[in-house]
Amino acid sequence: MRNRENEKKLKDIIYVLVGSVILAIAITSILKPNGMITGGITGFSLVVEKAFGINYTIIYYILSLSVLLLTRVTMGRTEAGKIMVFSVFFPLVLIVFSRFKMNITQNDLFLASVYYGIMAGGATGLILKGGFSSGGTDTIAKIINRKLFRFMSISLIIAALDMGVIFIAAFIFDTRIAMYGLLTQIVAMKAIDIVLFGFSSKVVKLEIISEKESEIEAFILGSMRRGISKYNIVGGYTNLNRVKLITLCSPRESILIRDFIAKTDAKAFVSVLPVNTVWGEGIGFDRLSDE
User: Please, what is the Cα angle at 276 between 119 and 156, to 5 degrees?
Assistant: First the structure.
């Protein structure tokens, strides 16, 4: 059992290391050489560099360590541990790769936007697949949701943060660069979903069995703003009565829910099912009527 756990930890760390290298290559050989922008900490670092002339890698390192410290203070050791490896390791990798003058796509901002989105999204997907977090807008959104805006969903806060960076970039860079930045975000989000759940699903169904179902239910309803169905079930092995929670959400939201469940009840059982289409009212669902 211990060997299996050690193998899993090693595999998860490899995911983070490989993801960090791919992301660093994407930033230093596509995003930066083409004078482009994206959302999150990366985009904000580039905006600060453009406005004040401070090297973006230094800004990125300061922001990463600041988010790590803020997470430790506001959300505890467990949450900080999820971003520790990436927050400390990735800025170093970024500094190393920034010394190589590479430009994979020259004079084609559209291809650069698509290629960066694929590489950055794929890298982030690997990091999330390893059970870690990138320590970017996802983590900042959790803190804002918990401390300031509990009435807003974490997904909405993430979108607002990323779009806010791109909006500022429209003034510091120009509107055309900001529009390409929006394209990188869209492609990256799709790439994350593909790495985590394959090509077929834009919605996933989570079936959750836990002794802390009330806390998990409150998080999904309150922080994620997603609906829940509840079923009474009986365990075949234990013959104990339990409540199964079922919710539909986006792949990105499922990772946030997974992180909360891992912190709340590490012994919970969660099955994840890809859903091709959902008809009805809800974010990301298809309406039953076109009227």
Answer: 60
- Max CA distance (Å), the chain: 65
Which pLDDT tens digit goes with each residue over 16-43?
788 888 888 888 888 888 888 888 888 8
- What is the C-alpha separation between 257 and 126, in angstroms, rounded? 17
Residues of the chain with pLDDT under 50: none
Structure tokens at 116: 């960066």
Query: Cβ contacts of residue 280 below 8 Å, gap of 6+?
Result: 286, 287, 288
Burial label, 27 (beta-carbon count in 10 A; 0-12, 13-18, 19+): buried
Shortest CA distance to 97 belongs to which of 123, 63, 118? 123
Residue 220 phi/psi, 5° resolution? -65, -45
158 closest CA partner among 131, 134, 129: 134
Residues 6+ away with beta carbon under 8 Å from 11? 130
**Cα distance between residue 217 and residue 188, in whole Å:** 29
pLDDT of residue 138: 76
Alpha carbons within 13 A on the beta-carbon side of 264: 22
Cβ neighbours of residue 200 under 8 Å, at least 6 residues apart?
274, 276
Q: What is the pTM of this model?
A: 0.70
Which candidate, 286, 280, 145, places its Cα nearest to that of 225?
A: 145
